[in-house]
Design brief:
Largest sheet: 6 strands, mixed
Order of helices and strands: EEHEEEEEHHEEHEEHEHE
Oligomer: single chain
Number of domains: 1
Number of helices: 6
Radius of gyration: 17 Å
C-alpha cells in the first residue's frame, strides 16, 4: 500500500491533496522504495507498479510534467501528454495536478472557494525566474483568496549555495537577504521555503502553511538528490473532488 499523507492546511472540502514519501513501494535501493520518477534509472516496470499503487488513492491518473526548472504553467485539463512545464492548475473536478521532487520545493495552491487548484515545482532556478508568479497569474484568482502549502524540500541547514545565487535573489528583492546565512568564503545557507514565502507574500498570497520538513535530514522519509545523488522522486498532488467524491 502506498505511503502518503494529506497536507496540513485549511483547504476547502472540495480540495483534495496527497504528499507521497519514500516508503510503501516496490523499488530497490537506491530508489527504495516508492519511487514515482521514470527518469532516474529505476526499472520502468517498478515505476509503473508504484504509480499503480498511487492511482488507488486518486480519481484519475495524474498529469505528470516534464519539469525543466522553468516558469511555464499549464492547464492540466487541456494540455499535451507529459507537457514541458513546472506548474499545473485546473478548475475541472477529477483532474489531478502533480509535481515530482527530491529536494526542490513543491507548492500547492487553492482558492478559498475551492474552485481552482495548482501544483508548482519550485527549485531555486524556477523560483528565481518566477514560476510562482506565473502560476498565480494563470489561476486567474485574486491572490488574497489563495492558500498555499509548502511541501518537503531541502531545508535551511542543508542548502548551501554560492554568492551568485544569493546575489540573484537579492537583486530581485532586497528582503531576500533574510533567507541567507553565511557559512564560509563565498558560500551561504539558503532558506528555500522562506524565499518561496517571500515571493508568495509579495504577490498577495498571505495564507501560507507547511515548509518545515527537510528532505536531506530525514532519509527515512524522503528522497534527496543532494544527499544521495541517484535516488527516487516523490509526488505532491492536488485536485478538485468530483461530484461523486474521492
Amino acid at each position: 500500500m502506498a505511503d502518503l499523507f494529506a497536507p496540513n492546511w485549511p483547504a476547502p472540502a472540495s480540495v483534495q491533496a496527497w504528499q507521497t514519501v519514500r516508503t510503501g513501494g516496490v523499488s530497490p535501493v537506491p530508489w527504495a522504495s516508492f519511487n514515482l520518477g521514470d527518469h532516474v534509472g529505476d526499472a520502468p516496470a517498478r515505476v509503473a507498479a508504484n504509480r499503480a499503487l498511487l492511482a488507488a488513492h486518486l480519481p484519475a491518473a495524474p498529469i505528470w510534467l516534464q519539469q525543466v526548472h522553468g516558469t511555464r504553467a499549464v492547464d492540466a485539463a487541456d494540455c499535451e501528454k507529459t507537457p514541458v512545464a513546472d506548474a499545473a492548475y485546473t478548475r475541472q473536478p477529477g483532474v489531478v495536478c502533480a509535481v515530482m521532487t527530491a529536494d526542490c520545493l513543491p507548492i500547492l495552491l487553492c482558492d478559498r472557494a475551492g474552485q481552482v487548484v495548482a501544483a508548482v515545482h519550485a527549485g531555486w532556478r524556477g523560483l528565481l525566474a518566477g514560476v510562482v508568479e506565473t502560476c498565480i497569474a494563470a489561476m486567474a484568482c485574486p491572490p488574497g483568496e489563495l492558500l498555499a502549502w509548502l511541501g518537503p524540500a531541502i531545508g535551511p541547514s542543508a542548502f548551501e549555495v554560492g554568492d551568485e545565487v544569493r546575489a540573484a535573489f537579492v537583486d530581485h528583492d532586497a528582503t531576500a537577504v533574510r533567507a541567507f546565512v553565511a557559512t564560509r568564503a563565498d558560500k551561504w545557507l539558503a532558506d528555500l521555503p522562506q524565499l518561496a514565502r517571500q515571493r508568495l507574500q509579495a504577490h498577495g498570497v498571505l495564507a501560507i502553511y507547511g515548509g518545515e520538513q527537510c528532505t536531506v535530514n530525514a532519509p527515512e522519509h524522503y528522497f534527496s538528490y543532494r544527499r544521495d545523488g541517484v535516488t527516487g522522486r516523490m509526488a505532491t498532488l492536488v485536485w478538485l473532488a468530483p461530484a461523486s467524491g474521492v
